[in-house]
Specification:
Layout: H1 2-23, H2 29-51, H3 57-83, H4 90-106, H5 111-133, H6 136-156, H7 164-189, H8 198-215, H9 220-247
Helix pairs in contact: 1-2, 2-3, 3-4, 4-5, 5-6, 6-7, 7-8, 7-9
Length: 248
């Protein structure tokens, strides 16, 4: 009975989608892609609702979001092969879908997990959108969210130290790295050195290091070395972007 219901839904929906596509007078690439999306998405949705009824609602949503990501990747490969371009709006959508998919499938659904995965997904989506459309107003919140979300997660999760000063110090250093990313990705949009994000970033880094030293002096050198290596990596990326601008 389940198999009959599943096949009936898939066949009827696909025939209906194809008929709409064939009998429309004007069919541009967006309408064709939308039709292909529904043709691939409806079988997945039907399978989840019919065969995976025993799973929880969060797992079902995660599987559906994962399938959406795979469909968007398939459509991008197809349109790139035909028209030598990609569907850019699918990139931020895919980033957010991947983050929610990972949250619902692989995490323990704790409050910090939601902050980390959703915040990181929104941050990456805003960052890519700001770079593509050259909107610095999207690059700033995107970069800050990429720094804030891991900062809150790694500082206050169970793997972090129990000392409140240590946790706060770790969080502030991650915040500082987020401000550093603003300077890095500003280089993608302009050839000028955008220095002002380094002011709050430097202040947060110094305060964070100071709190960590006060809370756990024995491990302060290792923490400063590790966070400093990340800062050097970010600086190396900036140098590569400068080299890219020179060759332009």
């Amino acid at each position: 009975m389940r198999t009959f219901l599943f096949l009936s839904i898939v066949i009827i929906s696909n025939i209906f989608s194809l008929l709409i596509l064939l009998f429309r007078k004007e069919n541009n690439s967006k309408k064709v892609l939308l039709t292909l999306f529904f043709i691939m998405f409806i079988p997945v949705l039907s399978y989840v609702l019919i065969y995976l009824q025993s799973l929880g609602i969060l797992l079902k949503i995660g599987i559906i979001l994962g399938s959406i990501v795979l469909i968007l990747i398939t459509l991008n490969i197809l349109i790139y092969y035909i028209e030598k371009r990609i569907i850019f709006w699918s990139i931020p959508t895919g980033c957010l879908s991947i983050s929610i998919f990972t949250l619902l499938i692989f995490s323990q659904h704790l409050f910090l997990d939601y902050i980390f995965y959703i915040g990181l997904g929104i941050g990456v989506a805003l960052l890519f959108s700001g770079i593509y459309w050259k909107l610095f107003g999207l690059v700033i919140p995107g970069s800050l969210l990429i720094g804030i979300s891991p900062g809150v997660f790694f500082a206050w999760s169970n793997t972090a130290g129990q000392n409140g000063l240590v946790r706060t110090g770790v969080m502030l250093v991650w915040f500082a790295l987020g401000w550093g990313l603003v300077t890095i990705f500003a280089r993608v949009q302009t050839f000028k050195f955008v220095w002002w994000p380094l002011i709050p970033g430097g202040i947060l880094a110094m305060v964070g290091w100071g709190l960590y030293i006060g809370g756990n002096p024995s491990r302060a050198v290792g923490f400063i070395g590790n966070s400093g290596s990340i800062a050097l990596l970010i600086f190396g990326i900036y140098i590569l972007l400068i080299r890219r601008g020179i060759h332009r």
